[in-house]
Amino acid sequence: MASDGTTLSGVTTGVDLRSTHQLLTTDQQIQAKIAWAAFNKQSFFGAMGIESFGVEAVKNLDAFGSAMGKSTGMISFDSGHSMAFPINATSGTSFYTQRNSSYNPEYVEGGDQSLWAWHRINTARVIPEMDVMDNESKALINIKAMRFEEAKNSHVRDMALGILGNTSSPGTGVDDPLAVHSDLSSLISAEQDTRTVGGIADTNEFWKNGVKAITSAGGGGEMDRPILLRRGVLDQMNDQSVFAESAGRYLLLSNQGFWQTFDRLSYADLHENGGVMIKNGAYDAAGIRHFMFNNSPLMWDQYAVLPRDGTASTDFCYGIDVNSFKVSFHTSCNFQLFNGWEDPRVHDQYRGHQLLISTRYTPYVTSRRTHFAIHGVPANAD
Known about the structure:
The protein is of the alpha+beta class. It is built from eleven helices and twelve strands. The strands form two sheets. Strands 1, 2, 3, 9, 10 and 11 form a six-stranded mixed sheet that branches. Strands 4-12-8-5-7-6 form a six-stranded mixed sheet, with helices on both faces.
């Protein structure tokens, strides 16, 4: 019997689908509703959606459907291999479990693993047939519709966890983003002398992102203005934005503590100096809480984690250059809904309705040196 769950590579154990090898290597049904949900659930996703599709697409499902394949911003849609098994294998594996047995035909050309460039995230759900039948007569709740919504939200949440490098992300070993250092906290890290990202050696100074430890926020006067924090972030942003490949504008992503410390600065300026807490019209229209700092939006995301090797138990902020940070989705294998709810069949021993949502994606940077990581900021006590 299949079981509920999410994995970041492979397929959830026990999922039995009416799928053949040919079906798995061709285009599937791509659900715009699932993709749209991804850019309406978390702050970071919403910001990437605005930068890639525009605010109208993020707010409106119909506009999003037409804009989805035309992105030239932080979201890219790329093509590549579609198969999902070790392609030098000469015997069956359990990567895809069919109703009667595992199935993997011999395929002996190419590299060792056809999923070299993308991580696959799968979310599976099962409803016992009796639960659906009991519900049909009274129509108290559409259990299949509600379980689909729950699966969709879980899929989006787990994908965000993987992109941001959160340890709560589901993973199955060597293929998930945290393991291969393609998550945000590795791509923009605090120490870069222990790992290689994208095949470029860590000894290459040209490749390293900027880093600053700001150990004092300053302030204490004029309603507690953390002036040292402001000066430090501005200094690092200026240093990284001078490179030719930089867009000169950043997406500043922080944890909640950094956000609340920065809120003191904005509040003090508003009330002491009569200043205006400037907002970005697009981000405001999309309902993303943010401040504007040096013409760049600053926001926090609940799933953001400390840059790799940053000072533990301190607040932090990523300076993400919008011109060179992207999340790649496989053109033919993103936000797939395999057959919708697959109904049980007469000869099944355990009768249940099955659902599988699958997406192939990976975060990456085209230039690492334009980004920066701020860490070491005293933890906010508010």
